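To the structural biology subgroup,

Please find below the input and predicted structure for Solute-binding protein family 5 domain-containing protein, which we are adding to the shared reference set this quarter. The sequence is reproduced verbatim from the submission form. If anyone notices a discrepancy with their own records, reply to this email rather than editing the shared folder directly, so we keep one authoritative version.
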Amino acid sequence: MHDLMNRRSFLGLAGSAAAVAGLGLAGCGGGGDKPAGSTPAEGGTKGGGTITAGSAYTTTNFDPSSTSSALACGTNWHVVEGLYGLDFHDYSVYNELAAGDPEQVDDTTYEIALRDGAKFSDGNAVTADDIVESFVRATAEGNIYIPMLAPIASVEKKDDATVTVKTTVPNFSLLKERLAIVRVVPASSTKEDMTAKPVGSGPWMYESISDSAVDMVPNPEYNGDHPAKDKKLHYDILVDPTARVTAQQEGSTLVMEMVTADAVEQLESAGCKIDVVDGFGTRFMLFNTQKAPWDNVKARQAIMYALDYDKMIENAFAGLASAPTCYLPKSYTNYHEASTVYTHDVDKAKSLLEEAGATGGAIKLLTTDNEQVKTMAVQVQQDLKELGFDAEIVTRTTADTYADIDAGGDFDLLLAPGDPSCFGADPDLLMNWWYGDNAWMKVRARWSESVEWKQLTELMSSALGQTGDEQQETWNKCFDMIAEQAVLYPVLQVKTATASWSENPNAEGVRIEGFEGIGTTGLSFIDCTTVTE
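Predicted structure (tokenized):
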């Protein structure tokens, strides 16, 4: 792809909180006082229009305190603020509801003042009570956010405009990145309110949410630095890739997410700009380590060496993916080539399998119904046959797949997609998502009783209290261990392709200014605006 997004590099997140504190969002600029539609653009008029997007995802849960939906997380970025926000183009941190940086009181205590005059779209002022209650909800028992928020011991009210944050890690260098996970809604919100249509203090507010569309309009109460410049932000829910491509090509959407590889040339020919960004998004293999032979690390490694990565990259992604050389992609600042790098080596795979005392046989390969995963599974099945395994592929929806595993269902391998980088990109967060003290290791990989898992989590905990080279060295040990153990490991790391009418106008003479694709799921329209020519 000629338009790889290498023009922006990831900021080194470890120990760099101060360095990124003042960085705003990239794009067409924010904070101006002029009303939407009043700014003349070269050859056209900025703002006052409708930003339209084609979404590849759908959900029924928009609750900012619990959702992991790509659609909900992405739309909530525009509606529901945190104390801090992340610019997902480079993962720099900027102030949202916080008036400035945390003020450190002692090694584990910080005070954060709220933005003066901040209000929710319902007209009520944002207070410390709302911050506290939102943190309580995000860390409620069973919540998927708990591992990521574990370094934060508590968030308490000091006064109406100030909160006190206590950490479990002295001088925690990633405090703002972690607080960005907690999105703030009114303390009076019910679970039903938050799930169906949350209220926030961001530049946009939800107008309506249905199975087919999400509509947002400017929040008249917003007083931050990134106001909405258009009259509406509209998402069409187009899960079918052909429908998304058609809408984008015709120009009924200004932006389309998850462009399939076979549609890139077609959309470029129509006049769209294609952003292809290296990201953390993976298609991973998970082993049931309570079941022989997968309780033996050599058997797990054998499978990873048996896989024909090049064929999967070509057949399932038409080149828009790469084989991993680390748990992190090469584009990440904290990347370190792992001590174990898996390549297609059938002889080595057979040798390892023999060392493990395994002889093949019938096994069950679970997959979700992701189209790319289903294509990959056929290749995996063929690769496993060379080792003497007869793999039965069982494909179900994501919800049904994990419900069966979580209920103790029998399986051998799981091939599935995953991308926690919509919550952040520091190594601890990305490792904790799958390898933390949670359902992934306890009931899915079933590895949490192992000596190796305890060693890994001890290393991860140690790194949180470190900075600089010392921290990177500890993370490198984690990357090496995760690769060597191969309990849950990327098979492919996927590039994210996004199409936009940004360099050229659509058939109606409208383009979007300030938009760039990001490397994770979701679309960011902060500081973007339509230009009508």
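Summary notes: Residues 107 and 256 are 45 Å apart (CA to CA). DSSP finds 17 helices and 21 strands in the chain.

Regards,
Lab coordination
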